[in-house]
Amino acid sequence: MNPQDATYGSHTRQFPGRLFIVEGIDGSGKSTQLTLLAQWLRGEGYPVVFSEWNSSLIVKSTTSRGKRRHLLTPLTFSLIHATDFSERIEREIVPSLKAGAIVLADRYVYTAFARDVVRGVDPAWVRSLYRFAAVPTQAFYFRVPLDLALKRILSGRPKLKWYEAGMDMGLHADVQESYRLFQARIMEQYESIVKEFDLTVMDANRPVEVQQKALRRAIRPHLESMKEQVAQR
Amino acid sequence: MRGFGSYGDGIPGVDLSELSGWLVVIEGTDGVGRTTHVDRLRAHLERLGYAVAETGLSRSGLAGAGIRRAKQGNTLGSNAFNLFYATDFADRLEHEIIPALRSGFVMLTDRYVYSLIARAITRGADPDWIKKVYSFSLKPDAVFYLRIEVEDLVPRVLQTGGFDYWESGMDLPMGEDLFESFINYQRRVIHELDTLAREFHFGTIDAMLPVDEIADHLAESVAAMIQAGEAPTDGQPAEP
């Protein structure tokens, strides 16, 4: 049961649409950037679909139950999120790409690659698990100093959830401390993922509008061939 | 020394060397008598003094209810369904099968990953991919495959409540009506199980043999396997 070709990216299909995704740890400002990008693209007349890591109702009830009652292990955490993501791919992302939309995704498979591997899941296995995922036109990683991201998140005195803080890993008894250690490890994974999958690194330390300018400049070349389609509408 | 292995990289956080029981799988399509044989095998092994536990598919604490609900409305995409089943299986593996094996039980499993793999392939999943997904699973000590031809399956299914929507592949569907779809779907599932039987060396049993004959065969095979595995510690000094 160890076929080499069954891995993420080995199974690409071409669609008329475009898929741009943002990744980064909590507090990196990636969601803000993606929202600004969506507004700009809509203003330019492109059909935009905004896709978040949210769930179909059926899977969501299972995920919530698992989280509330702390039933999830690294393996089932990984699988239930893949189930959810598969539904998002089949029902939302791929049909939109077929229809020629610009799909913007806040977090993508790389979130799972980082998070699940930190929990001890085999890196090759989780990459293969997500083989069904469409490969993005371009993927952006918002690199931010850990302390800055932590300050942004923790200064709001958030009520961190059990799995969100990585409490299931027993890193630290204190929720905030566990969250810090967990995020640091996720960041390490992201750095190797950036190289492996050639993500475009964005300096998330710069002012919001400077980052947005860079983001728009980066995706513009991918939109050239779509221009005519939009003009015809 | 005997021990458990997995088909891939194992299970995160689980030390397989702690497992000491026996994992015995009964595979086969619906209507071949799996439940009967699990019950009889359990009774036999308990008479011999072994602690026996059993489990089946879609009974997990985590995802069982969600799967039942999703089936009622046919609300999940087929790939998501494949992964939902994998989640459910993983939960059962970690919360039922592994604890029982850790305690030295004989775990009788009414179907295992092979049925789930066959089901997924029949619904269009890539065989290499779905096998890799399930590569976390434990290699059983024995897999018995109750094999039947689809023509022989029909009268049995009619006697026991008729054609089930999912067991007829009506979500696909594979024929003009329930009966035709059942025939085509089950033929395809049996074909996939046959392929897996060769790849994973199942003990294949003709499900049309008399029930007693099958039960005796299972009882003797499993008891012999356990006794052979136990022999070195069965009152004899260990090898120096």
Would you give an account of this structure?
- The complex is a heterodimer of chains A (233) and B (240).
- Chain A is 52% helix and 11% strand.
- Chain A has helices at residues 30-43, 57-68, 74-98, 109-118, 123-129, 146-154, 175-197, 208-223, 227-232, and strands at residues 18-23, 48-52, 102-106, 138-143, 200-203.
- A five-stranded parallel sheet of chain A has the order 2-3-1-4-5, with helices on both faces.
- The radius of gyration of chain A is 18 Å and the shape is globular.
- The model of chain A has no long low-confidence stretch (mean pLDDT 89).
- Chain B has eight helices and five strands; from the N terminus they run E-H-E-H-H-E-H-H-E-H-H-E-H.
- Chain B has helices at residues 34-47, 64-73, 78-102, 113-122, 127-133, 150-159, 178-199, 211-230; strands spanning 22-27, 52-56, 106-110, 142-147, 203-206.
- In chain B, strands 2-3-1-4-5 form a five-stranded parallel sheet, with helices on both faces.
- The longest helix of chain B has 25 residues, at 78-102.
Q: SSE layout and pairings?
A:
The complex is a heterodimer of chains A (233) and B (240).
Chain A: E1 18-23, H1 30-43, E2 48-52, H2 57-68, H3 74-98, E3 102-106, H4 109-118, H5 123-129, E4 138-143, H6 146-154, H7 175-197, E5 200-203, H8 208-223, H9 227-232
Parallel strand pairs in A: 1-3, 1-4, 2-3, 4-5
Chain B: E1 22-27, H1 34-47, E2 52-56, H2 64-73, H3 78-102, E3 106-110, H4 113-122, H5 127-133, E4 142-147, H6 150-159, H7 178-199, E5 203-206, H8 211-230
Parallel strand pairs in B: 1-3, 1-4, 2-3, 4-5
